[in-house]
Amino acid sequence: MKKLCFMFICFLTVILAGCGNKVSSGKSDIYKVDVTKTTVNAADHWIVSGTTSAPDGAKIVAQGPAKLNAASKINDYAWAKVKNGKFKAEISPRLVLDVAKSHKVKVYLFAITNYKKEVADSVPQKYLTAYKSKFDLHTFKLSKAQYRFVNSMSMSAEAQDIVGDNPKISKMGNNFAKADMLQKLLDSIVPQTQTLKDVKCDIDSKTGKVNSVTFILDDQIQNVGQDQIDLMKNNVNNDMDSICQQLEISPKPTIIFKSESGQTY
Question: Rounded distance, CA 225 to CA 230, Å?
Fold first, then answer.
């Protein structure tokens, strides 16, 4: 009997501990996550690893002052998800905040179930409110390189003070975020092909507009027939149409194809 009581108490302890790590909002459960490791990759993005009691398949969300989800799979602009009580996500500081005023930033970081939004969407306020009612926000530290990275693509604090609450501010900040999403998405494609060596977005430093996207091709492309090159260019243009529509980037940037040695196609 004592053994059964002990087992029951242990069971309740586990159940209550699990309940203490989540909060519900509508049909979604929001789970606390514990960050065990944070590093910065070559793109000045955070690589975050951690644990959670969330079930397999729960999506990892990170949102800061820029009011956009900033978390995704490593090198892939898709949802980072929980597996076996663990997660690993890439978080872009440019999607966390529009301008850095210090080397620290508070971020909502959690796992969520039954969440139907696209990875590029803002997180609805009801989920953030539910999370904050029970858990603290996570603090991320910006390295010197990340601080420069964020502010190099943002308007100065003085410019923001001059413009004040003008809606153009949020529109311009959103442009920078979209440009960062586009660059990240295109970067994830590079490792998947031998022909494509790099992708570079030319972004207006004042407005965030993407002026052009240059696809850097392997020099071996010169050994490929013109018909195949034309087919590749047509496919890329179609893909860019779809991506720009999804990210609401308008007008579509100029598409440029160049070999590593500089030849334009």
Answer: 9
